[in-house]
Amino acid sequence: MPPDPILDTLTQASKDLLYPSDSDEPFTPFHWPAGPADPRAALTANAPPPPGAKIEQLSLEAFFADLTEDPRFAALQKTLQSTLTTPTVLRIGERRILIYLLGQLPDHSWPGLKTLSIET
Amino acid sequence: MSLKRCLPILLLSLSLILTAFAQPRSAAPLANAPQQVLINPATSPQLLLGNPSNATSDPRNKDNFLLSKRYYALAYDSDAGIPRWVSWQLTRDYLGDAPRKREFAEDLSLPPGLTRITHKDYLESGFDRGHMCPHADRGRDIDMSYATFVMTNIIPQAPSVNQKAWAMLEDYLRDLVQKQDAHIYIIAGPAGRGGWGSKGFRTAIANGKVHVPGQCWKIALILPGGSGGPAADFQKITPASRVLAVIMPNDNSVSYSWAQYRTSVNEIENVTGLKFFDKLPPATAAALKAQIDTTDIPQQQHPTYGDENTNRPTPGE
């Protein structure tokens, strides 16, 4: 596979970062192919959630709100804002909640980071 | 100016005054939520059924230190880094949709000399930060919600316990409150030593600072609701009141069904050495402690896993 600079950027920006909840989970980068500008459509096309799963969308600002005391989270937020068009956050499921931080590139592809939040 | 024309201005001024008074309350709790106010244990609604270990607020009592918090009470075992028991009242007044806190706070209300456990002490441990008094039992406002994200309210629970059977039991009790207006008095805690997390068997984590229990237990005294506070609830307790007592292994092979783990309070006393219901008349307490709940538990809906691929290994795998 040819090198993918955006995957490298996202890997570097999330290196050693763990998302805090009942558990602590790493971030995994992904890069989905070009598609329409709707993040939910991108999710359905590339990582279809189980039928009936609760899906919630929130802003990047809301997602990072009480995390940016850690400068590494603040830096990650900046990286996402500066590299992706209209970055957003999708939360899928309950209790074990899959979180996608994603946005588009000029070529309409969808890179982002995936993590997990345990919320009981 | 007629009254009709002044009225909007009057109402606006009134709302501004009210907002001004409301402001400090909604703004202040964020910084101070973890260091909650301690209240008088003798009159605390969170301790209606008693103090199962005779915990005291003498800091020399390091392994049985009473923290009578506003929204729940507990006995902290500083040598084990976990509570011995946590006790709380559950009624509709405590429920709501207040947001969660993501990073758990160390308990700044512990006096010097007692070990303070931090969020990071559970990192990479293979165990979840398992709430005793759950966030969803304290969702009325952000102050209440954040009060549950304090490490003295947490034990290391196998991920499957925390996310499956234990969570379903919490849902079941909250359902009784939401749908039937039940008033429930709950005590929960750890028992024994050594559990199976996602990284295998551990007797302790955080370099020995936090002991891993072998079992997790919960006792719920379920009373009819209605108006009236804890004193009125106390009068409703009879030898035939419903007691739900559960003890389950702290093991990652536990599934969603918790009803199979029902037992008697007597059995939990045998396993833990604690003494429950000591504020009740002895005959009533004896009858309640011998009960094993046989109520038919309807099939509960459980959420689909976010991603089955991220499911962690269980001991057998």
What distinguishing features does this structure have?
heterodimer; A: 120 residues; alpha+beta; 5-stranded antiparallel sheet; two-stranded antiparallel ribbon; 4 helices; 29% helix; B: 317 residues; 7-stranded antiparallel sheet; 26% helix; globular
Verbal overview:
The complex is a heterodimer of chains A (120) and B (317). Chain A is built from four helices and seven strands. Chain A has helices at residues 5-13, 39-46, 60-64, 71-83, and strands at residues 18-20, 24-26, 28-32, 55-59, 85-92, 96-104, 110-118. The longest helix of chain A is centred in the middle third of the chain and has 13 residues, at 71-83. The mean pLDDT of chain A is 95. With 317 residues, chain B is an alpha+beta fold. In chain B, strands 1-2-3-6-11-12-13 form a seven-stranded antiparallel beta sheet. In chain B, strands 4-5 form a two-stranded antiparallel sheet. The longest helix of chain B has 25 residues, at 3-27. Chain B is globular, with a radius of gyration of 21 Å. Classes of the chains: A alpha+beta (120), B alpha+beta (317). Chain A binds chain B through residues 18-24, 50, 52-54, 66-67, 92-98, 116, 118-120, and chain B through 100-104, 119, 122-124, 128-131, 134-135, 159, 162-163, 166-167, 170, 303-307, 310.
Elements of chain A, N to C (H/E):
HEEEHEHHEEE
Q: What proportion of the residues of chain B is helical, as a percent range?
A: 25-40%
Mean pLDDT of chain B: 88
Shape of chain B: globular
Low-confidence stretches of chain B: 6-34, 307-317
- Largest contact between chains: A-B, 24 and 27 residues
In quaternary terms, these chains amount to: heterodimer
Arrangement of strands in the largest sheet of chain B: 1-2-3-6-11-12-13
Q: Given the structure, what is the number of helices of chain A?
A: 4
Number of strands of chain B: 13
User: How many E-type strands of chain A?
Assistant: 7
Low-pLDDT segments, ≥5 res of chain A:
none
- SSE order of chain B in H/E notation? HHEEEEHEHEEEEEEHEEHH
